[in-house]
Amino acid sequence: MSDSTSSGETSASGTQRMDVSAIREFGEVLLTSPVRLCFIVEARYENDVMPGAVVDVLRSAGHHVDVLRPNGTVTDLWELLPTDVARYDAFVLKTVSEGPGLSLLDAAAAAGVTTVNDYRAIRLARDKAVAAVRARAAGIPFPKTWFASKSGLLEQIPADAYPLVVKPNSGSAMRDVYRVDSPDELARLAIGGSLLAQPYLPNPGHDVKLYNTGDEVFATVKRSPLHPGADVVEEKIPLTPELRNLARAVGRVFGLDIYGIDVVETADGWVVLDVNDFPSFGNVPQAAWRLARTVLRVTRRQAAARAAAQASAPTVYRPVVTSVTEARA
């Protein structure tokens, strides 16, 4: 995997000094035997706080972390195959919904390497149509949802369902999310690809974002993409037991360790609008340290599970990889 940033280099977010208070709280997990990690980060997130801050924390604690940029390098997939000493203990993904990084994460999982989040959970969350049905089938409160392969088909939705919220089926970062008040307005909407439509649920100009760092749930206020001009102070807010239970239920249903959900309060209670793997974790205190701890815990948990599985079934097929030159010799 050429052209990845090695653990000896500074990440885009800059090397941070060890935070003494954070070490007191998280050091018992971080300052242990080193692990080898590879973060798959697409160009859009290279200069963002996340995941660069998590990389910095892990490196400062002595762990080996490479950053693989799928938009700028060719990846030797054979390096993912199992050997006596694996190159990485886990892969961590921070990419856009349909970016090339997800294929690399799936390939790593196919080779038996741990992924954070679990690659299957990421697939469930990123296909918004699948996520809607998964949530609803599990009893998670979720808006009625229509799927259309192109925008013209949305005109078949009954007029009494308006206003609607229309968004891409594979969207991310709340981009291209629109409120549509009538069929005529829908006809003027220029948006391509597969789409979802849901009834608009009124909100006060902001959404509530619930973040799960793997150990703890936090609630924050974030500006709604449907009300870009609203006067909103984005901040951390008190977490109620109802919101904590809702966030944890979503994690169990999707199999996610690190995630966020957008929720809105209705007359019938809180409703989940969206599920995201590895969001920004804005306004979460010591988010990088909390996420680093979860990455290490998941990595070690899966390593222990693999060791137990191998002990119970010692005969494991391992491919013999030879070069073309060796094969012809």
Radius of gyration: 22 Å
Q: Which overall shape is indicated by the principal axes computed on the Cα atoms?
A: globular
Placed side by side, the strands forming the largest sheet appear as 11-10-9-12-13
Instruction: Write down the CATH topology of the largest domain.
Output: Rossmann fold
Mean pLDDT: 87
Strand and helix order:
HEHEEHEHHEEEHEEEEHEEHH
- Beta-strand portion reads 15-25%
What count of structural domains?
3
Topology:
Layout: H1 20-30, E1 36-41, H2 49-60, E2 64-68, E3 90-94, H3 101-110, E4 114-116, H4 119-126, H5 128-137, E5 146-148, E6 164-168, E7 178-180, H6 183-187, E8 195-199, E9 206-212, E10 217-223, E11 236-237, H7 241-254, E12 259-266, E13 269-277, H8 287-312, H9 324-328
Parallel strand pairs: 1-2, 1-3, 3-4
Antiparallel strand pairs: 5-8, 6-7, 6-8, 9-10, 9-12, 10-11, 12-13
What can you see in these coordinates?
This protein is of the alpha+beta class. The protein has 3 domains: 20-117 and 285-312, Rossmann fold (3-Layer(aba) Sandwich); 144-200, ATP-grasp fold, A domain (Dna Ligase, domain 1), CATH 3.30.1490; 204-277, 2-Layer Sandwich (D-amino Acid Aminotransferase, Chain A, domain 1), CATH 3.30.470.20. Helices cover 31% and strands 21% of the residues. The protein is built from 9 helices and 13 strands. It has helices at residues 20-30, 49-60, 101-110, 119-126, 128-137, 183-187, 241-254, 287-312, 324-328; strands spanning 36-41, 64-68, 90-94, 114-116, 146-148, 164-168, 178-180, 195-199, 206-212, 217-223, 236-237, 259-266, 269-277. Strand 12 (259-266) and strand 13 (269-277) form a beta hairpin. It is globular.
